[in-house]
Specification:
The protein has 208 residues and is of the alpha/beta class. It has six helices and ten strands. The chain is globular and about 50 Å long.
């Protein structure tokens, strides 16, 4: 099985999250079925922490990129974070107002991250393959990314996304797209704080 997580942060190495990480917990619970793990994280400071998280899993690919929509043309993107959150930047966003909302009294800094379009990423690694689990935790950009995925071209069994920062309209459009492509709501997603939604592709008999 192939497991993909966009916005991996510091994995289970961050004291801010009490050293918990929903994605790594989820994957390690499916240990016998792992074929390949892809963790994508734009903050270069977190890559070593992610390597520590997955040190016992040789079939792990670490990609230091910000995954962006297909119409994004720049090779770099400015991502903002609060000085209070500077250790691992759990809140990292291209929308400075998003950071100010959570850290209204903090100094705001930014880093420049290399970008990779979602179509380029999927076409490079997953052409003619099936992704068992595809999850995102990208501070409100989740909808933009998933809306740009061709769910006919790419075979994905389970999609988990953070809904906390999506507008009502974004959430509706995203859910409509998933349902129209044969997915059904399957409860909470992988985040250990239960702020993700999980949608699962129906089989040929219309069952999850």
């Amino acid at each position: 099985m192939i497991f993909v997580h966009i916005g991996a942060g510091a994995g289970d190495q961050d004291p801010f999250s009490n050293f918990r990480d929903g994605f790594s917990e989820y994957v390690k619970n499916h240990e016998s079925k792992i074929k390949k793990i892809f963790v994508i994280e734009p903050n270069p400071k977190n890559i070593e922490k992610l390597k520590k998280t997955w040190e016992n899993y040789n079939d792990t690919e670490f990609l230091n990129f910000a995954i962006v929509p297909n119409n994004f043309e720049n090779e770099e993107i400015k991502l903002f974070y609060s000085e209070e959150d500077s250790l691992h930047c759990q809140y990292l966003s291209n929308n400075i107002d998003h950071i100010k909302h959570y850290f209204p009294n903090s100094k705001i800094n930014y880093l420049l991250a290399k970008t990779l379009k979602i179509e380029t990423f999927l076409n490079k690694f997953f052409k003619n393959q099936t992704i068992e689990s595809f999850s995102t935790d990208i501070e409100g950009a989740d909808s933009d990314i998933i809306m740009d995925i061709d769910l006919v071209k790419y075979k994905i069994n389970n999609i988990s996304f953070e809904y906390l920062h999506l507008s009502k309209d974004q959430k509706k459009k995203l859910i409509d797209k998933l349902i129209n492509n044969g997915y059904s709501y399957n409860g909470v997603g992988i985040d250990h704080n239960n702020i993700d939604l999980l949608f699962t592709k129906k089989n040929q008999n219309g069952m999850i």
